[in-house]
């Protein structure tokens, strides 16, 4: 690696970075086009052009790596941690279940859930947004799609958090690997029982579909269903929650922008895209190099673990005019918050619908809100969930 790469090292897994990443993004982009991850010493790509190229070339920047062992699994999650052509056959049976058309069919149910949640706290004039709205709204729709019992939501959230954020339940950071491994076995055991139930009692939900679907002339094996379900559980219960929190935290601190959405709710779909770009919740994703490659004059070697800094690429001036400005009228928004290429987010249509409906109903019911005086939102590293976002507004008399 070049001397510049050695000198530009960043710790991208801190709560401080998650709370305010843009200054670090700028530092990364202003130096060598390839930086270094202070945790694992691997290179970091930050330019939109480089990140997009890497995402579109999985034969070089592979998702197939040993990292699956770090999230409690014993096999790679399907289809996220396998590459084409094997990955393609699974996307072929999964994509139709998360199509834009199917997501529009359930939006009325999501809207009803949003209003039911708001009914519970609107008259209080305050709420902690993450717990009151950002967590339950996408979780309700996801569990319904999957065919998982809503009354077990607390269990599912515990399992998800123990995998993604084990440090929150670990008395000692060194316990995180053990917590992940034990939780992974609990997830497998839960879905093993669910698969058995669906084989005995077919249903038309996602779990029922996975049991019955034909994949190149054969049914999915139990292991394949487990590896798909593991991924869906983590993704379905976390990233939309994180995005809702990032969006509302931004709008609560920028009343002029918030008022634009209240006055012109037709701007909300564009605002969802722009805030995905600017407030990118999944800030970085890992890839392993399958061959030597040169990026911006920096030689990277096969076997290196590369971080694609999605958040930095989404504020690259070379790809976005006035990239550091949140512009709800932006016409060409080619952000990569959902990734790109073969591994583009399976649930992007679901996420967009949930975000749009959630923000529409929130601003219709609670148009004027702000962060409670004297309080500071708390962000988590890795995936930027705002775990503590206390909001206040004028309650209905």
Tell me about this structure.
The protein is of the alpha+beta class. It has a single domain (3-392), classed as Cytochrome p450, CATH 1.10.630.10. It contains 18 helices and 15 strands. It has helices spanning 3-7, 15-19, 22-30, 48-55, 86-94, 100-105, 107-121, 129-134, 136-146, 153-164, 176-200, 206-212, 222-236, 239-253, 255-263, 268-278, 310-313, 348-365; strands at 9-10, 34-37, 43-45, 61-62, 126-128, 214-215, 218-219, 285-289, 293-295, 298-300, 305-308, 370-371, 378-379, 386-388, 390-392. The strands form five sheets. Strands 1-2-3-11-8-4 form a six-stranded mixed β-sheet, with helices on both faces. Strands 5-15-12 form a three-stranded antiparallel β-sheet. It has a two-stranded antiparallel ribbon with strand order 6-7. The longest helix has 25 residues, at 176-200. The protein starts with a helix and ends in a 5-residue tail after the last strand. Residues 1-6 have low confidence and may be disordered.
């Amino acid at each position: 690696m070049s001397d510049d790469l050695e000198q530009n090292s960043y710790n991208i897994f801190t709560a401080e970075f998650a709370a305010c990443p843009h200054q670090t993004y700028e530092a990364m982009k202003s130096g060598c086009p390839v930086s270094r991850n202070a945790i694992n010493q691997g290179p970091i790509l930050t330019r939109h052009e480089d990140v997009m190229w890497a995402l579109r070339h999985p034969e070089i920047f592979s998702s197939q790596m040993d990292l699956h062992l770090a999230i409690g699994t014993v096999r790679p999650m399907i289809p996220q941690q396998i590459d084409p052509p094997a990955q393609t056959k699974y996307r072929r049976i999964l994509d139709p279940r998360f199509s834009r058309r199917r997501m529009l069919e359930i939006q009325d149910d999501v809207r009803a859930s949003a209003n039911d949640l708001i009914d519970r706290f609107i008259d209080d004039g305050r709420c902690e947004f993450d717990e009151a709205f950002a967590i339950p709204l996408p979780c309700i729709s996801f569990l319904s799609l999957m065919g998982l019992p809503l009354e077990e939501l607390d269990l599912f959230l515990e399992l998800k958090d123990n995998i993604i954020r084990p440090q929150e339940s670990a008395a000692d950071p060194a316990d995180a690997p053990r917590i992940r491994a034990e939780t992974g076995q609990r997830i497998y055991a839960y879905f093993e029982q669910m698969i058995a139930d669906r084989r005995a009692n077919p249903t038309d939900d996602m779990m029922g579909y996975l049991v019955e679907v034909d994949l190149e002339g054969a049914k999915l094996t139990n292991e394949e269903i487990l590896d798909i379900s593991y991924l869906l559980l983590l993704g379905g219960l976390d990233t939309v929650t994180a995005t809702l929190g990032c969006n509302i935290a931004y709008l609560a601190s920028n009343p002029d922008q918030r008022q634009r959405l209240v006055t012109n709710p037709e701007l909300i779909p564009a605002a969802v895209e722009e805030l995905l770009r600017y407030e990118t919740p999944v800030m970085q994703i890992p890839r392993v190099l399958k061959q030597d490659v040169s990026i911006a004059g920096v030689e990277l070697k096969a076997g290196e673990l590369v971080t694609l800094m999605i958040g930095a690429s989404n504020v690259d001036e070379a790809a976005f005019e006035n990239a550091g400005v949140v512009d709800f009228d932006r016409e060409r928004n080619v952000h990569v918050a959902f990734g790109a290429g073969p591994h583009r987010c399976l649930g992007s249509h679901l996420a967009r619908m949930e975000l749009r409906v959630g923000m529409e109903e929130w601003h219709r019911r609670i148009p004027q809100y702000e962060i409670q005086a004297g309080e500071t939102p708390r962000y988590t590293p890795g995936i930027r969930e705002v775990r503590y976002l206390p909001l206040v507004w004028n309650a209905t008399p």
